[in-house]
Predict the 3D structure of the following.
Amino acid sequence: MTDYMLSSRAAFTGLTSSSGVNRGVVVFDRDALAIATLLTRKNQAPALAQRVRARFGLELPNGPRRVARDDIALLQTAPEAWLVTREEGGDGFAAFVSDALGDVAAVADQSSAYAILRVTGPAVRATLAKILPIDLHEHVLGINKVASTMASHVAATLWRLEDAADGSSVFEIAVFRSFAASFWHSLDSSAAEFGLVVHATVRR
């Protein structure tokens, strides 16, 4: 039986690290983050932006970036396509978003479709540079920037959060749940020289 057994609710549960005891990279499971996809219906982009502003107090991102208020965030991942997240939003989150936005957008629950890790630490950039074919320099991937890319042949969506208290960059990476074990193996291998520490699920 493989160590990379997946759970329907916690994709990274039971995945252990072989990267030593150093703290070059620190990861947190984000399994409590509710996720939905949001797609603009035909000719409804202005109406959707207005509805998002009225209901969530957010400006709908127009480009690969993230906006957040309270416990809700919106990330544009493609033209007229976004991820919507909520801290501990529960199984009814997609229905909540759909009710809020009405018929101007198509909303689908993705909470069980994605696995998300928060990744930080002094060696986080050096580690991710081994598996991501994008420029992670802060002048390119600034805070709240979003990138859709590949992580060692696994499709991934990456966004950068505010830096940690020690100055380390903080990223969250979403992959399809069925590829969580493959992504974890690549991340663990890339962090081997720096050390990888796994922490319990983090909220916010």
User: Anything to note?
Assistant: The chain is about 20% helix and 35% strand. The chain has two domains: 25-31+113-199, 33-109.
